[in-house]
Amino acid sequence: MPTHEVEFVDLGATVTVSDTETILQACIRDGIYQEFSCRVGMCLACSAKIIEGEVTQPAARSLTEEETEEYALTCMARPQSDLKLERGRYPPSITPQK
Ligand code: FES
């Protein structure tokens, strides 16, 4: 079963994620704190900025097409390569408007 290493650069922790699980599932399994709420790709609480690498997240419909290249919803995202992520970074579409 193929796996990828996902490094959280803000935490200095790495989790191994198989191609049959999401990044969030691997974090919960290994006891790595990752914020989440809905677990269905709607609330964006689990968002992380993609620093390096690629994910697939076709069910992350709350992100714009551009945002899916830059942000991972860890409850939906499955790595397609080794990754570097920064937790707690949110896409511009949820930034409060002034
Ligand atoms: S936990 Fe809500 S979008 Fe991931």
Low-confidence stretches: none
Molecular shape: globular
State the CATH architecture.
Answer: Roll
Helix content: 10-25%
Query: What hetero molecules are bound to the protein chains?
Result: FE2/S2 (inorganic) cluster
- Beta fraction: 25-35%
What is the residue-mean pLDDT, rounded to a whole number? Answer: 93
Keywords: 2Fe-2S, Electron transport, Iron, Iron-sulfur, Metal-binding, Transport
Cofactor: [2Fe-2S] cluster
Protein name: Ferredoxin
Pfam family, one: Fer2
Q: How does this structure look, described?
A:
The chain is of the alpha+beta class. It has one domain (3-89): Ubiquitin-like (UB roll) (Roll). It contains two helices and seven strands; from the N terminus they run E-E-H-E-E-H-E-E-E. The chain has helices at residues 23-30, 67-70, and strands spanning 3-8, 13-18, 47-52, 55-56, 71-73, 78-79, 83-87. The strands form two sheets. Strands 2-1-7-3-5 form a five-stranded mixed beta sheet. It has a two-stranded antiparallel ribbon with strand order 4-6. Strand 1 (3-8) and strand 2 (13-18) form a beta hairpin. The protein is globular, with a radius of gyration of 12 Å. The protein starts with a strand and ends in an 11-residue tail after the last strand. The mean pLDDT is 93. The structure holds FE2/S2 (inorganic) cluster (FES). Keywords: 2Fe-2S, Electron transport, Iron, Iron-sulfur, Metal-binding, Transport. This is Ferredoxin. Residues 4-91 form the 2Fe-2S ferredoxin-type domain.
